[in-house]
Specification:
Elements (H helix, E strand, L loop, with lengths): L1 E5 L6 H12 L2 E4 H10 L3 H12 L5 H12 L8 E4 L5 H13 L6 E6 L2 H14 L10 H15 L1 H8 L3 E5 L4 H15 L1
Parallel strand pairs: 1-3, 1-4, 2-3, 4-5
Length: about 190
């Protein structure tokens, strides 16, 4: 199964991706996690990305496309993968199309977690409060506001992009964690 999880910050993409990893043995490819690892390791990409991420802006498309392309070539992606946080712009989605075609792979489904924006600030605040010393440097009110603005302007149009390709399925992300994952499982059963 090869899928994209789409949804704003705090929608629950990471939580659901983790559950899919456990249940279906496919890997989670989170560009946010990959970039945070690069920041921590102080690689050239990480050094460039840090201030961009902290402000809630997007790192350049070509940087993430390159990271994802290399990651998809690793053997553990053979069983399928969940893209979490990528693509985030229409140019990224077009680059992904080209990349998958080159690698002779097809996407099975794009699942959008639809959430009420008012809930997101609370969810992200809660995540920050629960993370103790490991709090993400972009989980603060200013960066979150920016991330939501960026989501609305640049990422939300991807729902239409994938709807036109007949790949989009929407799930109510306001439901409880287990209900959301049951719904995702139903979608898997349908497309799988
Ligand atoms: P969230 O979904 O909570 O916003 P992520 O962990 O997916 O957080 O991403 C954190 C930050 O990493 C983003 O705000 C952005 O700066 C950068 N980033 C992650 N994925 C991408 C991407 N596909 N394109 C550009 N920037 C990205």
């Amino acid at each position: 199964m090869r899928l994209i999880l789409l949804g704003p910050p705090g929608a629950g993409k990471g939580t659901q991706a983790q559950k899919l990893v456990e249940r279906h043995g496919i890997v989670q490819l989170s560009t946010g996690d990959m970039l945070r690892a690069a920041v921590k390791a102080e690689t050239p990409i990480g050094l460039k990305a840090k201030s961009i991420m902290d402000s809630g802006e997007l790192v350049p498309d070509e940087v993430v496309v390159q990271i994802v392309s290399e990651r998809l070539d690793e053997p553990d992606c053979g069983n399928g993968f969940i893209l979490d946080g990528f693509p985030r712009t229409v140019p990224q989605a077009e680059a992904l199309d080209a990349l998958l075609e080159r690698k002779k792979l097809q996407l099975d489904v794009v699942i959008e977690l639809v959430v009420d924006e008012d809930a997101l600030l609370d969810r992200v605040k809660k995540r920050a409060a629960e993370s103790g010393d490991n709090v993400r440097s972009d989980d603060n009110a200013d960066a979150l506001k920016k991330r939501l603005d960026v989501y609305r302007a640049q990422t939300a149009p991807l729902a239409q992009f994938y709807r036109e390709k007949g790949l989009l399925k929407q799930v109510n992300g306001m439901a409880g964690i287990d209900e959301v994952s049951a719904e995702i499982d139903r979608i898997f059963a349908d497309v799988g």
